[in-house]
Amino acid sequence: MHQRPTLAVWKFASCDGCQLTILNCETELLAIADRVDIRWFPEATSTMIPGPVDVSFVEGSVTTDHDVERIHEIRSQSGLLITIGACATGGGVQALRNGVDTGDVIKTVYADPHYISTLDTSTPIASHVPVDIELQGCPIDKGQLLETIAALLSGRPPRLPQSSVCLECKAAAQTCVMVAGATPCLGPLTMAGCGALCPVVGRGCYGCFGPMENPNPAPLVSRFEQLGMSHGQRTRFLRSVCDLAGQPSPTTGSAHE
Amino acid sequence: MYRSPRSFAAASGNAMLALLAEQGFEVIGPRRIDEAIVYAPLGTFDDLPIGVTDRQMPGRYSLHDSDRRSYFDAAVGPHSVKHHLHPSSSTVWDITRSDDGALSIEMHRPEPAPLAVIGVRPCDLVALEKQDRVLMGGPHINPVYAANRRRLFIVAVNCNHPSGTCFCTAMGNGPTAVRGFDILLTELPGDEGSEFVATAGTDAGGRLLESIDTDAATPEQLERAAELAAAAADEMRAEVDLLEAGTHLKEHLDSEMWAEIGERCLACANCTMSCPTCFCTDLIDTTSIASVSSRRTRVWDSCFTGSFSHMGPGPVRGSIGSRYRQWLVHKFSTWHDQFGESGCVGCGRCITWCPVGIDVRREVARISRSGT
Ligand code: SF4
Ligand code: SF4
Ligand code: SF4
Ligand code: SF4
Ligand code: SF4
């Protein structure tokens, strides 16, 4: 047998939820451990073997000067770099502070603000270093994680759909909560992958998988307005976990126009 | 076997369902689940959404109490029989590699239990016929579809109350069924409860009708059924013959209207997913963590996704407008070239279930009339 590929899991500004998704792969973890050599995974093991690795999974966003240095170091030590979750791929909930006065935020939150050293923004990993594969979601989907690992071990590209949550919603024979229940839903703008988790339990999608391949927010925003959402509510909804508002309308050309 | 129409009351309907269940059929029919009427297991006629009707508009669906005590008063719901015939996901094969490197291939040839669907609408019967042509009409037969199709027993129901998005008549069919059913019912609502006029379409349907308590349908009952059908058709009276207009869409591929629709469309694919005739699928190969087995799965796809037309550097149809054009032109225009008929039956699902209410009736009419 070939030498097992080495793997590391790194954490930046995040809640650990995506790392927990890795640990939640209980039944598959043994099979994975059989095929890869886990060198660095503080959430799971106390054995830490630094040094270059074949694959790095990175959770969390970049929020400090130290983070910036660290992600460059990790990139240089990693064969493939895979970001996991909304924080690493989009900046996460903590990116709500982007565009507001960070000093004010710190004063509101912390009793002793002078201990806090932070950047003004929370940014995705891809804003700092090249990323090979992005796994979306808050947290990531276990199925997509296993698919990615299985794909890498077999030397094929992982199947990560870029289409809207609506496809999965209809495939699951779920009645649309927005058409039938007048519940605002971000599914049409959001990337598939979760299996329409929220609509299946009667809720609107809040976009935790980030923007799909070609999102077109304007018509959906008008629909939210018709559903009675105020301007402020619409803005907050489109910017709850991932930024779904900032996408330009994809009227770019193509070969078949 | 009965050659002429019969009539019966709800009690005989219950007997019919019980007999189907006894014969080993899984019986499903329209039921109220949460906010919509969807196919779900049906024990008796009392499980049907009695006295419930639907209101459908572009991008809107709601249920309401009706002043009638009808069993089949709601038009088509979000999901068609497609879900039970051409499932959104099905396994094609599993391949396993043994320690000595030999491959064993297991083709999946499902043998589904017989399924009886109660309350299939005339538009959906026509849609079934179109899917039959695509998925088992030629030399390449989709085995899952064919197996599901063979197991199917259909009790169709003529439409008395089309919804606001129905336009079957403008597509040259409905609101009454002509073929494709085992039994066809027309509901005659009345103060004492509904009566049903029943016609057998197959031997199996005829035998089932013979096994339950029915009477010969009276001339009055048949006349009432015809009046109801005429009234239903009247409700949908359209100004434009969309069947004919649709054939001209392919002459307008360069219209500026596609880009304009592209600004209103989300490319969410709800229209293609809910359409009872859309058949497109993707094939997905996955491998196990141990890399000793792989599985091929067939899943629904849509011409609204980027991967659908992805070649080399990216999707051939990059803009939303070009994807909308593919959907509309295929459905209403080039389907004729491919299969000798339209791909649309006028069920209205793509209109109701479009989150932003884009209406194919309007788009077909104005694009086919436009200058370019
Ligand atoms: S509930 Fe949301 S995700 Fe599902 S079809 Fe409707 S808009 Fe799309
Ligand atoms: S439905 Fe939307 S919010 Fe819910 S898990 Fe999926 S992507 Fe996240
Ligand atoms: S195109 Fe629309 S109206 Fe026509 S069959 Fe499909 S879903 Fe029904
Ligand atoms: S309209 Fe699109 S999804 Fe539907 S059958 Fe045609 S190409 Fe396929
Ligand atoms: S026409 Fe409507 S349902 Fe179809 S992709 Fe566009 S927005 Fe979605």
Explain this structure:
The complex is a heterodimer of chains A (257) and B (372). Chain A has 257 residues and is an alpha/beta fold. Chain A folds into 2 domains: 6-154, NADH:ubiquinone oxidoreductase-like, 20kDa subunit (Rossmann fold); 165-242, no CATH class. Chain A is built from 11 helices and 5 strands. Chain A has helices at 17-23, 26-35, 65-77, 85-90, 102-109, 142-154, 165-171, 177-181, 197-200, 217-226, 231-238, and strands at residues 6-11, 37-40, 53-59, 78-84, 133-135. The longest helix of chain A has 13 residues, at 65-77. Chain B has 2 domains: 6-91 and 107-235, no CATH class; 242-280 and 302-368, no CATH class. In chain B, 32% of the residues lie in helices and 24% in strands. Chain B has 12 helices and 16 strands. In chain B, the strands form 4 sheets. An 8-stranded mixed β-sheet of chain B has the order 3-2-8-9-10-11-1-12, with helices on both faces. Chain B has a 4-stranded antiparallel β-sheet with strand order 7-6-14-13, with no helix packed on it. In chain B, a hairpin with a 2-residue loop joins strand 15 (310-311) and strand 16 (314-315). In chain B, helix 8 (257-264) crosses helix 10. Chain B is globular. Bound molecules: iron/sulfur cluster (5 copies).
Lay out the secondary structure:
The complex is a heterodimer of chains A (257) and B (372).
Chain A: E1 6-11, H1 17-23, H2 26-35, E2 37-40, E3 53-59, H3 65-77, E4 78-84, H4 85-90, H5 102-109, E5 133-135, H6 142-154, H7 165-171, H8 177-181, H9 197-200, H10 217-226, H11 231-238
Parallel strand pairs in A: 1-2, 1-3, 3-4, 4-5
Chain B: E1 6-9, H1 10-22, E2 26-33, E3 36-41, E4 52-57, E5 60-65, H2 82-85, E6 89-97, E7 103-107, E8 115-120, H3 122-136, H4 143-150, E9 152-157, E10 183-188, E11 195-200, H5 203-211, E12 215-216, H6 219-235, H7 242-247, H8 257-264, H9 270-274, E13 281-287, E14 293-300, E15 310-311, E16 314-315, H10 320-339, H11 349-352, H12 360-369
Parallel strand pairs in B: 2-8, 8-9, 9-10
Antiparallel strand pairs in B: 1-11, 1-12, 2-3, 4-5, 6-7, 6-14, 10-11, 13-14, 15-16
Helix pairs in contact in B: 8-10
The structure holds iron/sulfur cluster (SF4) (5 copies).
One iron/sulfur cluster (SF4) binds next to helix 10 of chain B.
